[in-house]
Write a structure and sequence with these properties.
The chain is an alpha/beta fold. Helices cover about 50% and strands about 15% of the residues.
């Protein structure tokens, strides 16, 4: 299957993408991974992207699309892929359609993870990260440390990242509603959107997603 995963920040896209890609035996293609791989490998697109990033500028859509297209044409993606973080706007969605059409394939589904805005804020603003090891993550509601402000694993100080503050989260949501959410209507017009609730345990959401994708195929 060829799938685009969409949803607001805090919807659990990265977590669900990993599980779904494994269950469907297709590669998980994230924008962040594309940029890191191309830059570290020194590809032409990676060097172009780095030039824009070093100058504090946005990387043009054509560069991002070029990276995505190269990745989607690799052998492990022959039977499908799951795109996470791309496309981010309607222009990218249109360009993706053109690229897929040129390659003689098309999307099978757009999985929309639906989460109430207040829950998004609660999820992200409640995160606390260990200063000693950023992989040690806690939550003031869902995964409380035994001692407030102290990492259970190593005893390091827990803190809230600046981009996890409530004000920042709400600004990120505004950007999502303005730039990315319109692609849902774009894909609805093609009959591709499958919307599920992203509330509940990870396994429950994954099961819900797999059922929805199976019904849509």
């Amino acid at each position: 299957m060829r799938i685009v995963l969409v949803g607001p920040p805090g919807a659990g896209k990265g977590t669900q993408a990993a599980y779904l890609a494994k269950n469907l035996a297709i590669p998980h293609i994230s924008t962040g991974d594309l940029f890191r791989a191309n830059i570290s490998q020194g590809t032409e697109l990676g060097l172009r992207a780095k030039g824009y990033m070093d100058a504090g500028q946005l990387v043009p859509d054509e560069v991002t699309i070029g990276m995505a297209r190269d990745r989607m044409n690799q052998p492990d993606a022959e039977n499908g892929f799951l795109l996470d973080g791309f496309p981010r706007n309607v222009a990218q969605a249109e360009a993706l359609d053109e690229a897929l059409q040129a390659d003689g394939v098309k999307l099978d589904a757009v999985l929309d993870l639906e989460v109430p805005e207040d829950e998004v804020v609660k999820r992200i603003a409640g995160r606390r990260i260990c200063r000693n090891d950023s992989s040690h993550v806690f939550h003031v509601t869902y995964s409380r440390p035994k001692q407030d402000g102290v990492c259970d694993v190593c005893g390091g100080e827990l803190y809230q990242r600046d981009d996890d503050s409530e004000d920042t989260v709400r600004k990120r949501l505004e950007v999502y509603h303005t730039q990315t959410e319109p692609i849902i209507d774009y894909y609805k017009a093609q009959g591709l959107v499958v919307t599920i609730s992203a509330l509940g345990k990870v396994a429950e959401v994954t099961g819900r997603a797999m059922d929805a994708l199976e019904r849509s195929s």
